[in-house]
Amino acid sequence: MHITDYELFAVPPRWLLLKLETSDGLVGWGEPIVQGRLRTVRSAVEELVEVYLLGEDPLRTEYHWRKLYQSGYYRGGPVLMSALSGIDHALWDIKGKHYDAPVYELLGGHVRDRMPVHQWVGGETPEEVAKEAIQRRDQGYTALKMNATNEFGPLEPPAAVETARKRVAAVREALGDDLHLGVDFHGRVSKSMASRLVEALEPYGLMFIDQPVRPEHSEALAALAEGTTTPLATGERFYSRYDFKPLLTDGSVSVLQPDVTHVGGITELRKVMTMAEAFDVSVVPHCPLSPVAFAANLQAGFASHSAVMQEQDLGLHDPDESVGLAYLDDPQQFDFDDGFVKRPTGPGLGIDVDEAYVRERSRGDVNWYNPVWHHDDGRLAEW
Question: Which segments constitute the Mandelate racemase/muconate lactonizing enzyme C-terminal domain (predicted)?
Answer without folding.
Answer: 126-231
